[in-house]
Amino acid sequence: MKSLFVVILLILSSSVYSEEFRSGNFKFKKDLKLNSPISNLNEQWGQVELDEEVYRDSYYNDLRLIYKGESLPYKRSPKYERIGQKGSVKPKVIFEKDEEKRKIYLLEIPFIPTNRIMESIGINSDLNYEAQVQIYFGNEVDNWIESQSSFLYKYNAKDFSSYQQLNLKTKYYRYIRLELDSNVNLDFVTLNYGTEEKRSELEFSLDVPTANKDGDLKAMVYYFPNEKSYPFRSVELQFEEENYKRRYEISFLSNQKDYIYLTSGILHKDINKKINQNSIYVNETQTRPWKLTIFNEDNPPITLKEAKIKHPKEVLEFSTTDMDPKSIETNLSLYYGYKYSSSVQFDLTSFSQNDNQKYNIFLLKEQEDNPDFSYSILHPPFSIWVIRFVFLVGVAGVGFLSFRVFRRWNQVLIQKISS
């Protein structure tokens, strides 16, 4: 019996959920390669973009970046992109007011291309000055929507100082009001605009299935088979009708062939009120078949004409300081496909926070089945059943010992009563 408890203690004390990398736990791997000549490793940091296969076959927490058998710390970040060109326009001063130790300017901004942001205003002055500035933005002169505060100064009247750039970093507004705590005269040379940063996404257009009428629910049901297992985190729908408000529900097909609730909400479009709420977001990546239920209640059904699913693109950032360019393609790999993996806890304080950081760009090669993959009795899922079995055996052992003690105590008590 003592040997049984020794076995139980040994198994329970095993590092069933150890963070030590074991390649055999992971079903898939992708090798990395430099998107440049093999000898070119100029930057301190590397970056690789994840692809559709990684989103489809991973469990988010199970990504392991391995170099020469050791786990590399990484930072997982969304990928952003900028579309279009930068440019500038000349702002027009349509109102100017002098007060004691205070000045007000009202600027009218010419239209700029769509998907652009107002980055800064270039300002000139013949005199040295400093001023605290309160900035208001709006599309009407009597309705200010957004505000900022800033500080302007010029300490060398002979030069046009680079400090006379009033940073804005906001979307386009027709009017800008500036209130200065100084009555200095300013010349507004230019308004500089830049490209708007947009989150990059994978996008898949779907065939719209035939709607099924559910009379009991007063709803129309659309079944999406997702035969190619497209990964998605959001759904974008378009309907033939121009005005509607309907409740929806999305469910996904489980391994047991039952539909399980995922999310619900309201689809709402009103062209007069400029309302267009047709995007649906889910908390986790989905790859399974799913169904969309639209509850019409006692209203006429609305007709789905277009459906898209999307998944945000992400990148992994990691240090390349100690890497040998010649050995990267044979020693740097991404492992994934381990359902029971715990999340990694990396110290990211040393990672760059600079938006203009340059990276060595890496690419993922084709997905491979990990040749080292195997199930271990000390790792999930088998370890879960081992622990359950050992626990039951332990309970049975303790119960057996308790029964023997109770029976011995009962015999002694009977003997005392008989005597």
In short:
The chain is mainly beta and 419 residues long.
Layout: helices, strands, pairs:
Layout: H1 2-12, E1 28-34, E2 45-49, H2 52-57, E3 64-67, E4 70-71, E5 75-78, E6 80-82, E7 87-89, E8 92-99, E9 102-108, E10 116-124, E11 129-138, E12 146-154, E13 165-171, E14 175-180, E15 187-195, E16 197-199, E17 201-206, E18 212-214, E19 219-224, E20 232-239, E21 244-253, E22 259-270, E23 275-277, E24 279-286, E25 290-295, E26 304-312, E27 314-319, H3 328-331, E28 332-336, E29 360-364, E30 368-369, H4 382-418
Parallel strand pairs: 2-29
Antiparallel strand pairs: 1-28, 1-29, 1-30, 2-27, 3-4, 3-28, 5-27, 6-16, 7-15, 8-9, 9-14, 10-13, 10-15, 11-12, 11-14, 17-26, 18-19, 19-25, 20-24, 20-26, 21-22, 21-25, 22-23
Helix pairs in contact: 1-4
Q: Uncertain spans, ≥5 residues at pLDDT below 50? A: 4-18
CATH domain class name of the largest domain:
Mainly Beta
Shape: extended
Give the terminus-to-terminus CA distance.
Answer: 34 Å
- Largest sheet entry: 9 strands, mixed
Question: At the third CATH level, what is the topology name of the largest domain?
Answer: Jelly Rolls
What is the SS-derived class? Answer: mainly beta
For the secondary structure, the number of strands is 30
Share of β-strand residues:
35-45%
* Rg calc: 32 Å
Q: What percentage of residues falls in helices of 4 or more residues?
A: 10-25%
- The overall average pLDDT, rounded, is 87
**How many helical stretches?**
4
- The overall number of domains is 4
CATH architecture of the largest domain: Sandwich
